[in-house]
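Why does this matter for the project? Reviewers at the last site visit asked to see concrete outputs rather than summary tables. In response, this paragraph embeds two records directly. Each consists of the residue sequence and, immediately after it, the corresponding structure tokens. Nothing has been edited or filtered.
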Amino acid sequence: MDPECSRLLPALCVVLADPRQLVADDTCLEKLLDWFKTVTEAESSLQLLQDHPCLMELLSHVLKPQDVSPRVFSFALRLVGIFAAQEDCFQYFQQGELLPGLFGETGALSWAAWRVPSVRSGWTQGLCSLAQHPSALHFLADSGAVDTLFSLQGDPSLFVASAASQLLVHILALSMQGGAPGSPIPESVAWPVCARKIVSHVEESLRSKATPQVTQALNVLTTTFGRCHSPWTGVLWEQLSPPVASLFERDPIPAVHSLMDLLLSVARSPVFNFSACGLWEMLAQTLRRLSPMQAGPLALGTLKLQHCPQELRTQAFGVLLQPLACILKATTQAPGPPGWLAGTADSPLTVDVLLSSKSACVGLLCQTLAHLEELQALPQCPSPWPQVPLLQAAVTILRLCDGSADPSSSVGGRLCGTLGSCVRVQRAALDFLGALSQGTSPVELVLEVFAVLLKTLESPESSPTVLKKGFQATLRWLQNSHKAPGCSDLSPDALLFLGELFPILQKRLCSPCWEVRDSALEFLTHLLRQWGG
């Protein structure tokens, strides 16, 4: 430690220990912690304490919480954790009452300051810092700290609750690091005490009827499988997959989003034999059981997997396509080109969602369009990509929004009323339409795209954000409508379209709305940059 810092340290500790000296700014305490962490990374924590008795006096003073502010209390908890990360310093603390007094079940939990979220957060962060070696694991197993973490998973402070779950994962991984490389993985009943305790708690929570407890357990498992790629995680999944599978038998399925995150986290792990553990069947079952809105994110995540079986990929892609297939059928009396959905276009559940309410319809369409746009840009994009029906669906959605669609059924008529002038759906459809410009499309369909873009940019009812998206989509279609690959000239159809667009552009450049003028000027700038002649 720097000599000048050594001279100042006693006075600093006196200020921190004095309850009359109010520390009004947490920033200085955070900087102090960062400084102590830097010092302990370069020096022995035990030597630091022995050379500066004032530090031990400050930490011992914290055992009298009535004389310490919550800010300083939280600071001290984190500082103890930084020092105790080194095993010899941890053993030094163990000789006194400091660690049990601060982190044991008879310690901080019994103090009035425990009601302050920053104190609970400091306790969790301090414990995370010291949980770095076998001695810490024995202390955690014997002190009741792990039980406290179980209760903190449901803490009113989301930050504290998240930190508690993350720390449980850290402790579980640390407990399982002791095995010799290449040695057989023991059954979970032979795991270290901390690991067994955490796994038993997770298993019990998965069987709970209370959704918050199920969610907490699923989040711990999701993080575990996401971070830990050791063979012992296979034993963990083998034990816990039955209670996870039983969640699908409940009605309604609890903690759906957390459950989907877990399945995808397991599916990304490099240590599993997925066919043997039944994961693909579980994913397929989940896609069938969930509502269209819930199934969308899981379908996209499934399609991103590297080793997903083709049958499951087809099922997942069908889930994403169903809302657009329903749109096409409601407006053209046909489910789309033969085979593009392998017979799943008639989804009563999807139609029910589209017609149930405006918010449900808008939410499902916006989610579907965003997912398909993301999927198109990925290496895992399905092939062949159904460019034509997707483009027809995007154009149809925009026509439903601007009122120019010709619905061919009662469902189409209701969709016209629901989506009329819907800005959210227009924005999502224009983004997707712009993304589809990368594909190869028949000329007659490109002309339809230009027509719907022209109507969007011309309509006095188009909002500034819709106009901005419209200009962006138009630019992308112009950039991809060359007469030949590598040719910078515009096609005749694109030139005719520009001739019709220029009067509209001139009008938008004179709009009283600055956002509209800005979007039009940005569009014109891109045109001049690329086709100045």
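We now turn to the second protein, recorded in exactly the same manner.
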Amino acid sequence: MTRQEVNKLNHMSDVWDPETEIEENRHNWAEEPVHKKPVDEGLDSDAPKAIDLFCGPGGLSQGLEQAGFQSVLGVDLHEPSVETFRQNHPHAHTILGDIRRINKRENDARPILEVIEDDEVTDGTLLGEVAEQALGEEELHLLTAGIPCQGFSIANRKQHDEDDRNYLFEEFIRATKILTPQYILIENVSTMKAAKDGEFVESIVECLERLGYRVDYRVLNAADYGVPQSRDRLFFLGSRDGNPLIWPKPTHDESPRTVKEALEDLPALGPSESSDVYENDGEESEYRGLMRNSSDNGELHNHEAPNHRSSTVERVEGTEPGEPMYDRFKQRIRLDPEDTAPTIIAGGIRPQFQYGHYEQGRGLTVRERARLQSFPDSYRFEGGVVQGRVQTGMAVPPLLGQKLGESILASSRADDFVDGLLEWGEENYREYPWREEGRDPYEVFIAEMLLRKTSADSVEPVYEEFIEQYPDIQSLASAGQEELAELLQPLGLQNKRAKALRDITSQTVFSGLPETVEELMELPHVGLYIANATVCFGHDERRPIVDSNVARVYSRVFGLDVMDDQLHNDDYLWTFAESLLPEDGYREYNLALLDFGATVCTAQSPECEDCFANEWCVYYNV
């Protein structure tokens, strides 16, 4: 064995040691940053603009464009990724280079909290200059970044907190200071939350809040949004000036897409074989339609099988689907066709494959990896098979990016919707006795019980007589069920209503009416709507209100998928409603929303022409 071979083996033996320098990808650009203008400068769109830092091959940008954004600039130091981004987003500028040079940070060693207080940090940066060209006179709506995650990733066995790559989030903070976007979106691996006892997450939130952003973060799994891959990622979402933050609702959490659904229509290949045409149609599926709809005249790209040795073919063929192919590397499995794929990872910088095809004795093609990431078939990856693996592994799945983009667009409408609704409410306020400020919580509670399945106009005369006869819980407890039913007869369902009230008073006659939402919901016949309404209107606490009318408004204006029979069990709907609820004026907002849904945005004959929200309304614009 030669000395060079021994040295190579010695080097490979300690590549996971944190003291060993991180192996550099020779495709990472080490020279001065290079700005390239768009391949096609002819596109002039009025779509909201996005800039993608650490853009990789452009998965997030692809998803955002599917949602209605226009990506105007992508930045990365991985040369094949930038070329992929450039060819697939021909209307966008690109910068190839280290973000620390693009932001002019090399000679600035100050802590990031000191930097963001310095207005001059924005002057004369390459990022600012190119962004100005890319945006023209338009505002930057969204700044995104899939910040390099290798230092946080459990797939990186060299993971440690002081990895230099972990501090690249500071460059995103600096870029936010330079570009002042309306919204920000950051993606990283879910394990970032635990790194350095959560300090990285806390630092990101603190920095963005100092820059004037309202920030929230969550771990989302791509499989919940229609991507045939289980991929947990941590996302930060921020809005300038405290605008509401809306997260996407899972669409496939109960019916995830499978590996077979993603791959079965692609041509079968042997080792080193390739195909650029569709040969095997497979079964018709919604996912296949999504992937093929935008393909170039039926031409297939990047479908080239790895050039395996016969021993590798035998290893794959001898492994049951869903089982590990290697004893030492349990994560390298042969895919199970009836399950979602595991997380597609970048695969390092060597020509290795992570997963075996469930039916064919080989590793995956770049196109198959792209399918599992939800890239449309028209999306071409530049740089060859190995770099195609790197790119498909580092990308944000476009379908998840699309759902995030749709939510950000909904967030950007929220302020105008809230302001418009409050203004409408001032002019169209409906006076009812239970709406008077300072009304006793018991009186509010009774009104809400009577309003179920009944119009407010019908309830009003019955309510006034009811409160006169039974002004408190104790007097109500003394009433007989027949007596109550007679009083409630004009509302219909009087026997059920009377029994419900008797059941409630049997639990509250000695303790009184509960004051919290949680305690109210422990009462029989009391759901989240009545509990929240009682606390909001009776105790003046900020609580969202959702009934069938409100759900219909949110469905039409914000495109929510709402099932009437699931209103009180739809956690996402209630979280969404709370995100729109203003900090001040929440009482007026809730009342206006109830009235608007009952009188304008009705189920059968909505008054769309004069509605302040018709420009966003899905129902009106279909």
